[in-house]
């Protein structure tokens, strides 16, 4: 009998939580690559999953000639994908960078550090890869978690 009561309580709690679940939000930014079937980011609760981002001009699909500029375009693209969810680079918790040339590690890091002025970096991997789309030198996939959950509209402290 005790197990049945516990089971029913658990079932009721699960049903109550399921009613509070918000649907995922599929976010795209103006720099979205036209004609490619993906969302720039998906917000599930307070967690934002960023799709692979490249440091390219999304209209021409060209990579900047300068590697440092490519890294800046890429990281600005990450910031742009975080913004619709009300997040910043401070909310990033995991970043994976793919690069076909691992000798670019330090060069990328020099630009990457400037996007985290407080010195608090997300967990990260820098992974050697095969060729990237459009001849890019870097691709980022990331996860962000909102540090301070958004307050419902109309509510104040």
Describe the structure concisely.
This protein is of the alpha+beta class and 157 residues long. Helix content is 27%, strand content 23%. Strand 4, helix 3 and strand 5 form a beta-alpha-beta unit.
Summarize this structure as a short list of keywords or feature phrases.
single chain; 157 residues; alpha+beta; 6 strands; 27% helix; globular; disordered C terminus
Describe this structure in words.
By secondary structure, this protein is an alpha+beta fold. The protein has one domain (23-145): RutC-like (60s Ribosomal Protein L30, Chain: A), CATH 3.30.1330. The protein is 27% helix and 23% strand. The chain contains three helices and six strands; from the N terminus they run H-E-E-E-H-E-H-E-E. The protein has helices spanning 2-20, 67-82, 105-112, and strands at 25-27, 41-44, 47-54, 92-99, 123-128, 139-145. The chain has a six-stranded mixed beta sheet, covered by helices on one side. It starts with a helix and ends in a 12-residue tail after the last strand.
> What number is the mean pLDDT?
84
- In total, the number of strands is 6
Shape: globular
As residue ranges, the low-confidence spans are 4-19, 152-157
Structural class designation: alpha+beta
The count of domains is 1
CATH superfamily, by name, is RutC-like
Q: How many helical elements?
A: 3
Share of residues in strands: 15-25%
Radius of gyration: 20 Å
Widest sheet: strand ordering: 1-2-3-6-4-5
Portion of residues in helices? 25-40%
Largest sheet: 6 strands, mixed
What would the CATH topology be?
Answer: 60s Ribosomal Protein L30, Chain: A
* Name of the CATH class: Alpha Beta
The H/E string reads HEEEHEHEE
Query: What's the end-to-end separation, in Å?
Result: 44 Å
Q: Would you identify the CATH architecture?
A: 2-Layer Sandwich
């Amino acid at each position: 009998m005790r197990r049945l009561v516990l089971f029913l309580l658990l079932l009721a709690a699960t049903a109550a939580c399921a009613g509070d679940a918000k649907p995922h939000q599929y976010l795209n930014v103006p720099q979205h690559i036209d004609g490619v079937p993906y969302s720039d980011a998906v917000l599930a609760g307070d967690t934002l999953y960023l799709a692979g981002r490249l440091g390219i001009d999304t209209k021409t699909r060209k990579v900047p000639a300068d590697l440092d500029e490519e890294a800046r375009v890429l990281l600005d693209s990450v910031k742009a994908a975080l913004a619709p969810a009300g997040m910043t680079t401070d909310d990033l918790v995991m970043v994976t960078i793919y690069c076909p040339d691992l000798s670019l590690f330090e060069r990328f890091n020099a630009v990457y550090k400037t996007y985290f002025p407080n010195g608090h970096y997300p967990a990260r991997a820098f992974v050697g890869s095969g060729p990237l789309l459009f001849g890019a030198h870097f691709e980022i996939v990331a996860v962000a978690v909102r540090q301070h959950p958004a307050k419902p509209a109309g509510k104040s402290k």
